[in-house]
Structure formats: C-alpha cells, structure tokens
Write a structure and sequence with these properties.
- The complex is a heterodimer.
- Chain A is of the alpha/beta class.
- Chain A folds into two domains: about 220 residues, Rossmann fold, CATH 3.40.50.300; about 50 residues, Alpha-Beta Plaits.
- Chain A contains ten helices and 14 strands.
- In chain A, helix 3 runs parallel beside helix 5 and helix 8 crosses helix 10.
- Chain B is an all-alpha fold.
- Chain B has one domain.
- In chain B, strand 1 and strand 2 form a beta hairpin.
- The longest helix of chain B has about 40 residues.
- Chains A and B meet through strand 1, helix 2 and helix 3 of A and helix 1 and helix 4 of B.
Chain lengths: ~300, ~260
C-alpha cells in the first residue's frame, strides 16, 4: 500500500457484455487533495465511482480505498467514505433532518454523537433553517446540498462526488462550488467526476481526463493546459469555407486546431498567428485535443 | 493511510440491519395510514363478505361457525397482503425508481443485510396486521383464548417467508408489469387453496397436495389451532415447514437482489 494515497487503482477493467466501460484504469488520489475525473458522457466515470463502493466488481485489476482492498474489505472502506450520487435518491417524503438521521444510523454514529453530527451537516449545507421541510418541497439546489450533507454526516475521510452539479442552474452551481471548496479547505479528500470543464478547472488540484474507459492525461489543470495546448489560442470566426482554409494553413504551419460550432481555435500560437481573437488556452482545448469530443 | 484498523466486519451485523430498519420505521411515519388501511380493510371485507354472505347458506364448517372459520382463515390473507405485495412493489420502487438501495449500499451495509432487514420489517408489520381479522372475529363471537397470543408470531414467521418471496420476485422482475404473472399464476391460486374460505378436504386430491405444500395453508391451520386452542403435534411440523420456507426464500431473495444491485 502506498503511503498517503486515499484511492489507488491499477489496471482496473470493467466489462458489461461487449462493452468495456473501464479499460485498464490507473488512478491515484493523494490524501487531502481534490481530484477531478473529467470525461464526456460514457467515458466510464460513473462506473469508476460504482467500483469504489464495490457496487460494481471489476473483472481485472487492483483497487484500494483508504488502504482497504476492494471488494473484500469494501465495507470497512465504505464506513469511512461519503458518497454523493449523480441521481438524487433522498427519501422525498421525509424532512431534511429525518434524511440525515437515517444516514447517521446507516453510518453507525454513536447515539450520543448523532445530534451534533446532524447539526454539523445541516450547518455545512446551510440547511439549518430548513430542517423540518419535506424533501419534495425543497428546490433543486437545496436537494443537492442535502445530498452532499448526507454524505458528510459521519465525517468521512474521503468523499466521492458523482457529477455534483449536473442539471443545475449556473447560480446554484456556483453555490455548490463554494460548498465543495469549503470541504477542500478543511482537508477532506475529494474525488469528483464531472463533464463540466469549468468545474474541474476551479475545484480540482489534479485532473484525470478519461475517454473510452481509459485515462488519457493526468495532472494539475494549468500544467495540462501548458503541456498540451500551449499558452494562447486564436479563435477565428467565419463561414465554413474560411474555417477550412484556416485549418489547412494552421496544419501547414504545424499548429493544432480544434473546430467548435462556429469557429476554429488555433492552438499553441506564438508570433505567426492568423488574425482572430486571441485568448489564453484552457482546459477545454486540452480536453478536445485529447478525447476528440465536444462537450458542453 | 498508515494506521488502518484491520477489524473484521462480519456478515449480518446488527448495526447494519438496525440502520436499514430505522430508515423503514422513520419512513413508515409518513405512509402508515395508507398501509394500515389497505392491509386491514381488505381482509376485513373478505371476512364480512364471505362470513356473512356464505354464512347465511352454510352455518358450520369443520365444526366451527362459518364466520369464525373465515375470520381465523383471513388472518393468513392479511399476512399475505401485507407481506408479499409490499415486498414486491416496495422493493422494485426502491430499487428502480427511488434508487434508495444505491444509497444504502454505499454505506457500510451489504446486500445480505439489506434484504434481511427489509424482510424483518415487513414480517413485523405482517404479524401485527394479521391480528386484525382475529380481533374482528372476537366481535362475531370468537371466544378469547390465551393461545391467541401466538397469532402475531405465526403471522411474523409466515410473513417473513412471503416478504422474502416478494423481494426475490422484485429482484428477478425486469418491469413492474411482470408482477401480474406472479399475482395471477402464483399468489391468487395459493390464496384460494389455503383453506381460508373452505376446508381443503373437499378438494380433488391433486389440489389437496398443492394445498399441503402451500405455506399459506400452514399459516391458516396454525392460526385456527391458536384461535380455538386445539394444538396438535402436527402443528410443530407446520412451524418447521414455515421456518424452512422462510430460510429458502431468504437465500433466494439475497441471490436475486445481489444479482440486481451489484454488477
């Protein structure tokens, strides 16, 4: 076992019939960091999350979570792990507080600590005022905050966030980012899957880009950008014929490009660049270069 | 992660089962009215309809007033209605639509503990609801017997098996429509050849054989023995049979749900 690793995956393979959802994945999550699992839909992020709670059993490879080998010791790992699922599975006819109470039992918090644990979770999620509200009366953002609070009630050493902001308004998303950032500041180890680039860029210390069940790149967001997309990009807008021309010119000059809906971005430019909007290269450029896929 | 305690967590741990039970009990506070209504009113209607309707044609069956024969028999009906049906539908809804089991299995709870706790909870409810027809029968002239105190335990035992049966069916079913086959082809026939509404001795031989292996029939006989304080040695065999039924269904339910929940 590696010292200081909250999660260690080596050569993990998971197949569903003819589909290989996770295909030889290596993943390290050092304790006290936030790792973002970035990839388009179907890249294997959710399967990876299910493997970490032993709700999926791998066909090949080694998994260690908090020093416990999976799947044999997964129950010990799960006791120290908090999970926020992608799909809301709160008990909707119960109140906010009752939902937390149920999980304080499922996570075996001793009777005399239960009250404090629930109060703390309510405070973190900023739901103290809503403790007696039934879940089906909460807004989407509040439900998602409760989902996170529920994963924190037993003070887990590691929290898995599966697409924490999918389907939420931009304002609500930012509210959740603040919540995740506060957890990070407390030193909780986080593994977060997302297909929002901005989310990974803002919250993750290191990012692992997944495509077709494999890790295609890993590193700090800024390093990945510098390594794969250079410092600056030029965005050229125009009719399709003009865009094709720009692509051909860039290819002749040895520059890489990527097509967005309405423009061509020429990456890694220095002095000799086509005319267009100059902007800093970003993680999205890296993502599209490496996975060849567009995302929102 | 230097200092990891290597304590062994066993199978069927009490805290895991208690955690799932707590969830059910707290949830029950939000739907107990409808559950209690359907589990008690339906068998009571059977009791009244058959007991009073047929009762005017047939006065005595197997030596008992017909209304009391029915009243004691519908205890098993109440047990079935409050175990197999909620187990089938509840399990399927929690698995498929509410995704409750995903959340529970991410906690330190294994499928085996989850299934056991769910079945225990349903069985307790079946034991309680099963007493309703018996209580109604007291108003129709059934004499109280101390052995009647055994009825909730008989209901629990039988209910546990049927709860596991329902969970297993939910585990095997791909859609909620599949339940129609089970209800029409398995539960309704077994419910009718259980000796609830008429003694099985009047049935053709082959139906008597089906009745004899029908767990619901064992429940009917045991309840009548308790209600009329007429226990015999064969009742012990029936109890053993119900224990066997419960254990078998329990293992099948765990197998079915593990297949469904862990991939």
């Amino acid at each position: 076992m590696d010292e200081g690793l909250a999660i260690r995956l080596r050569g993990v393979v998971k197949r569903y019939g003819p589909i290989t959802a996770v295909d030889g994945l290596d993943l390290d999550v050092p304790a006290g960091t936030c790792v973002g699992l970035l990839g388009p839909n179907g890249a294997g992020k959710s399967t990876t999350m299910r493997l970490l709670t032993a709700q999926s059993i791998p066909d090949e490879g080694e998994l260690e979570v908090l020093g416990f080998r999976l799947p044999d010791e997964s129950k010990q790992a799960r006791a120290r792990l908090g999970v926020t699922p992608q799909l809301d599975n709160l008990d909707v006819t119960l109140t906010v507080e009752q939902n937390l109470l149920v999980f304080s039992h499922l996570y075996r918090i001793p009777r005399n600590e239960r009250h404090d644990a629930i109060e703390r979770a309510l405070r973190i999620a900023n739901l103290s005022e809503r403790r007696d509200t039934r879940v089906d009366k909460l807004s989407g953002g509040m439900r998602r905050r409760l989902l996170i609070a529920r994963a924190l009630v037993h003070r887990p050493q590691l929290v898995l966030l599966d697409e924490p902001t999918v389907g939420l308004d931009p304002q609500v998303r930012q509210e959740l980012w603040a919540l995740v950032d506060a957890l990070r500041a407390e030193g909780t180890t986080l593994l977060m899957s997302t297909h929002y680039i901005e989310e990974a860029q803002r919250l993750a210390d290191t990012v692992l880009i997944m495509s077709h069940g494999k890790a295609v790149a890993a590193g700090a967001p800024a390093d990945l950008v510098a390594e794969h997309a250079g410092r600056e990009a030029v965005e050229v807008y125009g009719p399709p014929a003009r865009l094709a021309e720009v692509e051909a010119e860039a290819a002749a000059a040895g520059l890489r490009t990527r097509r967005t809906g309405t423009s061509v971005a020429v990456l890694g430019v220095d002095g000799t660049a086509p005319r267009g909007e100059r902007r800093p290269a970003n993680l999205e450029d890296v993502f599209v270069l490496l996975t060849g896929e567009q995302i929102d | 992660m230097a200092a990891v305690e290597r304590e062994r967590l066993g199978r069927l741990e009490r805290p895991a089962i208690a955690g799932v039970l707590v969830r059910e009990v707290i949830n029950f506070s939000s739907y107990w009215r409808s559950a209690t209504f359907s589990s008690t009113v339906e068998p009571t209607i059977y009791l009244l309809a058959f007991g009073l309707g047929f009762g005017s044609l047939v006065s005595k069956v197997s030596g008992y007033d017909y209304v009391l024969f029915i009243g004691t028999g519908t205890v098993a009906t109440a047990v079935l209605f409050s175990s197999a049906f909620p187990a089938m539908f509840g399990t399927f809804v929690k698995y498929k639509f509410q995704r409750t089991y995903d959340a529970i299995l991410a906690a330190p709870v294994d499928t085996e503990e989850l299934v056991t706790a769910e079945a225990l909870w349903i069985a307790v409810r079946a034991g309680v609801y099963g007493c309703v027809p018996l209580i109604v029968s007291l108003f129709f002239g059934l004499d109280p017997e101390p052995t009647m105190l055994l009825v909730p335990f008989i209901g629990f035992l039988c209910g546990y098996g049927w709860a596991c049966f329902g969970i297993a069916i939910a585990g095997f079913a791909n859609s909620i429509e599949n339940f129609s086959y089970i209800i029409s082809a398995v539960l309704t026939p077994l419910f009718l050849v259980a000796g609830t509404f008429f003694p099985i001795t009047g049935l053709p031989d082959w139906l008597q054989w089906i009745a004899a292996i029908n767990p619901l029939h064992q429940c009917v006989v045991l309840v009548r023995s308790a209600a009329f304080n007429s226990y015999g040695w064969h009742d012990l065999l029936r109890v053993l049979y119900l224990i066997g039924f419960g254990l078998l269904m329990w293992r099948i339910a765990i197998k079915a749900m593990t297949r469904k929940l862990i991939d």
